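Translate structure to sequence.
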C-alpha cells in the first residue's frame, strides 16, 4: 500500500464551534498537519476547553445569536479580528429539537436567526478575506437529518439545509476565484448529543449497514482530506458519511 500524503497550500485554519468533541478532533488533526489555528467557542466553558488543549491557537468567543442580532447596528468585532484564514471548518450549531406544531414562536425565530442569519454573516466575513487572497477552502459540518430528519428535528434539519445552500452557492459564486466549498453530512456520531441519542436509542445504530456510529477521529480525518489540495475539485456539493444509514429504507 502507498500512503498518499495530504497537501495544504495554505497555513491558517479557522474552526468555528471548536469546543465540541467533533471540533476538538478536527482542530487536533489540523494542528498535527502543521496548520496555524484560530478556534472559536460561544461560552466561557468552551473557551477554557480549547485554550487548554491548544495553547498556541488564537481563541475567539463567537456567539452566533449576537452576530445576527447586532448585524444591522454594527460589524461584529470578533469576526473583524479573524486574520485571513485559508481554511474554514464550520461546526457551529445550537440545540433546539421541538415538534414543528408545538414550538414557541419566539424560540423558532431566535433559533433560525442564530443558525441561519448568524452563520450567513460569519461566512460573508470569512469568504471575503479568502476572496482577497484568491484562495480558500470551506467545509460545513451538516447532518443526514437535512435529508431524513427524525420527528422533532424539523428546525434543526431546516437550519442544516440552509447552511448547505449557503456553502453550495459560495462554491458556485467563488469557485473560479480560488474559493471552494463542501458540506459533510454526518450520520450518528460518537460525540456530544450523538452519544446521548445512541445511548437512549441503541436500535438506531443497528439499522446502519456498518452497525456502528462514526467516530470523531474518522470525521476529523475526512475533514482534513476535504480541506486539502487533494480535494480541491470537490466543490459546491454535499458528501454523506453515515456508514450507509441513508442508503436503507
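Result:
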Amino acid at each position: 500500500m502507498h500512503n498518499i500524503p495530504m497537501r495544504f497550500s495554505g497555513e491558517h485554519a479557522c474552526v468555528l464551534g471548536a469546543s465540541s468533541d467533533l471540533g476538538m478532533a478536527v482542530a487536533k488533526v489540523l494542528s498535527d498537519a502543521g496548520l496555524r489555528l484560530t478556534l472559536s467557542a460561544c461560552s466561557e466553558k468552551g473557551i477554557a476547553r480549547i485554550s487548554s488543549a491548544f495553547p498556541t491557537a488564537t481563541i475567539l468567543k463567537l456567539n452566533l445569536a449576537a452576530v445576527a442580532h447586532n448585524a444591522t447596528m454594527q460589524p461584529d468585532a470578533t469576526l473583524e479580528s479573524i486574520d485571513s484564514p485559508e481554511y474554514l471548518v464550520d461546526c457551529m450549531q445550537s440545540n433546539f429539537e421541538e415538534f414543528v406544531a408545538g414550538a414557541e414562536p419566539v424560540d423558532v425565530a431566535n433559533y433560525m436567526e442564530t443558525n441561519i442569519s448568524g452563520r450567513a454573516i460569519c461566512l460573508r466575513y470569512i469568504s471575503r478575506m479568502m476572496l482577497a487572497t484568491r484562495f480558500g477552502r470551506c467545509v460545513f459540518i451538516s447532518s443526514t437529518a437535512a435529508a431524513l430528519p427524525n420527528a422533532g428535528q424539523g428546525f434543526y434539519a431546516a437550519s442544516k439545509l440552509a447552511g448547505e445552500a449557503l456553502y453550495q452557492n459560495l462554491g458556485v459564486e467563488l469557485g473560479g476565484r480560488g474559493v471552494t466549498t463542501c458540506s459533510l453530512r454526518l450520520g450518528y456520531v460518537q460525540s456530544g448529543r450523538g452519544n446521548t441519542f445512541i445511548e437512549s436509542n441503541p436500535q438506531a445504530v443497528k439499522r446502519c449497514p456498518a452497525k456502528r456510529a462514526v467516530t470523531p477521529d474518522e470525521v476529523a480525518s475526512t475533514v482534513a482530506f476535504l480541506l486539502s489540495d487533494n480535494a480541491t475539485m470537490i466543490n459546491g456539493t454535499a458528501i454523506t458519511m453515515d456508514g450507509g444509514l441513508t442508503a436503507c429504507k
